[in-house]
Specification:
The complex is a heterodimer of chains A (305) and B (145). Chain A contains eleven helices and nine strands. By secondary structure, chain A is an alpha/beta fold. In chain A, helix 1 packs across helix 5. Chain B contains two helices and eight strands. Chain B has helices spanning 21-27, 65-71, and strands spanning 10-17, 37-45, 49-56, 76-81, 84-90, 96-98, 119-124, 129-132. The longest helix of chain B is centred in the first third of the chain and has 7 residues, at 21-27. Classes of the chains: A alpha/beta (305), B mainly beta (145).
Amino acid sequence: MRHLMSPLDLTVEELDQLLDLANDIERNPEKYAHTCDGKRLATLFYEPSTRTRLSFEAAMMNLGGKVLGFSSAASSSAAKGESVSDTIRMVSCYADICAMRHPKEGAPLVASMVSRIPVINAGDGGHQHPTQTLTDLLTIRSLKGRLNNLTIGLCGDLKFGRTVHSLIEALVRYTGIRFILISPEELRVPDYIREDVLRAKNVPFEEVIRLEDALPKLDLLYMTRVQKERFFNEDDYVRMKDFYILDKAKMELAGPDMLVLHPLPRVNEISVEVDNDPRAAYFKQVQYGVYVRMALILTLLEVTV
Amino acid sequence: MLNVGAIEEGFVLDHIKAGKAMTIYHDLKLDKLDCCVAIIKNARSAKLGKKDIIKVECPVDTMDLDILGFIDHNITVNVISGGHIVEKKELKLPKKITNVIKCKNPRCITSIEQELDQVFVLTDPVKEVYRCMYCEEKYRGSRNK
């Protein structure tokens, strides 16, 4: 029995197989419509997350399975002080697989250590969110046709954004990857990403402050939100906030095939006028999120079609 | 020079960084032993200049050498039998240590889950980096160095 705690739990070959399966699901959804008949997915969400929870639930329903669970710690027995270990032992009797989101880092790992069913980490604090990374990889591979030989711009809060860190760690396993890291000084990637991941693997990268400087060079732009509270002072925020808002004018600097991705929720960092641009892929990304979660559920349940 | 008698059966911890013997004495819980324990501080050392030494008159298998390896893997452990050194144990950085240090990340599951072992894993033997098994936070505390 396997669990998924981090995107790096999967080898490149396993990842390829998973993405192939997700693409087959995309092309032939009816072939998979009853592959999980009689199976149950438990969504154990100790903190609210509309997108991820609904994506998991939609994925299981698309496979013919059923879902049960809770969507906040207040409505679970955690409110009575039950441990994660006890909860998963109980849930193992009710469901065949579970997706867990928890504000404490490592909670899904603790669950996996005593669980009798596969556990999927659906986000644990600022630590890991592997199905977001799988979603990003599937979106890139499906729309660009490859995961190698890409110049990728990562823009916004690169310091605290876990999706950015996970995506970098996943992509450095492919050849010909080059990063342009676009952020204010205060929100540059942490040292361990720069030293232990990028420099250690000789992955070329540059760090720039202005989005305009990077846009003409990119195959892909991954946007994240710059939150006001991350800045040390109001002046810096006011001075820089527009640097990281993608609008129609900035899109004119980008190549005709540059994709725009965003883990969502978007607030104002991508202007709504960009939504109709054919290069805007962030809503397609949501759809790919369902396909990759369907593929993951089938893989962990060892269902063959 | 001060002389401390040789031991017949037991072990000697040599090449302890000067001034650290008492910390190791407590970390290894040597105070809980009821056998003879001698602590020598600031002994002359060709290798270190000055060093501390601990002599313990009880079998070495009562010791958790992983803890000692974690604290300082440059310490040498001489096993004594019949008044002679019969073995020199090389300490290595343990791959995993359980319930020796605590994760200080307030967002870590270990901060709330009852009776969960505190496990740290050696993730970079060159830089001697230990990370919490659950949240992967780097251990930044002192390892008695």
